[in-house]
Amino acid sequence: MEIDAENIIGTRIGILGAGKSGLAAARLLLKKGADVFLSDYKTSAELEKECRELSQSIVTGQAQKFTLFDYELGGHLDKILLSQDLLVISPGIGFDNPIVIKALEKSIPVVGELEVASWFCRNPVIAITGTNGKTTVTMMLDKIFNVSGKPACIAGNIGTAFGEIVEDLKSEATVILEVSSYQLETIAHFHPKTAVILNITPDHLHRHKNMDEYTKCKLRIGENQTKDDVLILNRNDTLLTNADRLSSIPGNALRQWFNNRGTIRSGAGIKKDTIFLFVNGKELKIMGCSDISVPGAHNIDNALAAATAAHFSGISPDYIRKGLRSFKGLEHRLENAGIANGITFINDSKATNIDAMIAALRSFAKPVILIAGGEDKGTDLSVAEQYLKDKVKLLILLGEAAERMANAWGDIVYKNEIAGSLKAAVHTAFKKARTGDTVLLSPGCASFDMFKSFEERGNVFKEIVRGLG
Predict the structure, then answer these.
(1) Mean pLDDT, to the nearest integer, of 438-455?
(2) What are the φ and ψ backbone dihedral angles of 379, each rounded to 5 degrees?
(3) β-strands 125-129, 110-112 pairing
(4) Fold observed for domain 335-466
């Protein structure tokens, strides 16, 4: 049985994981008339409260009259696999999970919240994925839509689940979704009007096992697109250009490219340090590269991608220009965390992989003191060697990856130390820096060995910097 919006009433659906996406899926499916069983191996007072409130909403008539809801916390019983027509899993749960394996053995379809929410969306969707830059491009587009007066709503991997907003969308609104590889792993019919793949570099290989599998997940963003849709790709990304050449990108969408090294036949490119859109043989001037408010060559790429997506949403070059000029960047992305004794501290905690760290290093003209390390993803460290050699005067390492990084980079950056905590790393950097220096937190690693999230890591960094006086 294939489950979709047309036959949802009375369908028995198990939801594995009671995080933001799981709860959003549960609320949406209950409202649409499904019978839902929610299961999470964790338990907490907050989760218990959310589930009780969800149960109460049925009693007070906020869900379908005959909808059934049950839940379990602190473990998974067999009920999650008994008589379910569909299993909805959270992005953090992979296909190697024992319950997911058993569901597939029982021929129970397995999808994610992104897929479920898309069943009930009639609005145009711009979906953005890529190893790095997803959030920035999502917010750039939100700014462009805002200044143009066209209504838009952002959701997805950026924090608000798609399922939370899909019922309240105005008919004229565009949905701008940040989409991760974890979410794309569990789609079936998800169909964005405009899809953007910014780049594909090694990341999340502990989940996807190898680059082939990771790349396939990213490319799935366009698999259900038709000739009436648009797929925007990075001309300078080797994996994307090779996939295009080998015809391994799924879907039939119109291909548009962005190119930060020159012009392009159809899409966005650079001419005389100026961003242009190249459309139907015409050149539409957007803005000078130097007019982009956020630093770094990678943000030129982000602006090119955002400009292309905005154009295909009917937004004029004037509004694209105004939106990009007014975009001031995001917290934890090359964010100025403060100045102490003439030393500038930069918070780039969102750099959770080596390519993001490289992008940060490329943004500085002078050598920096780099604080790096965290949860080790096991990625290739050699790709950063030249950038470290050219851009780093002192390397301070911390966390699970510190020793491996020290072994890999010790001969590249001769001045390097291992710190026992982020506070110790900042204080070491402050002690050894001189007036005019820049201290850059750009970990190149996930945060979970020492912090709950990259946001917490960045906030702690800023708090430590404030304490320097």
Answers:
(1) 95
(2) -80, 165
(3) unpaired
(4) Protein-Tyrosine Phosphatase; Chain A (3.90.190)
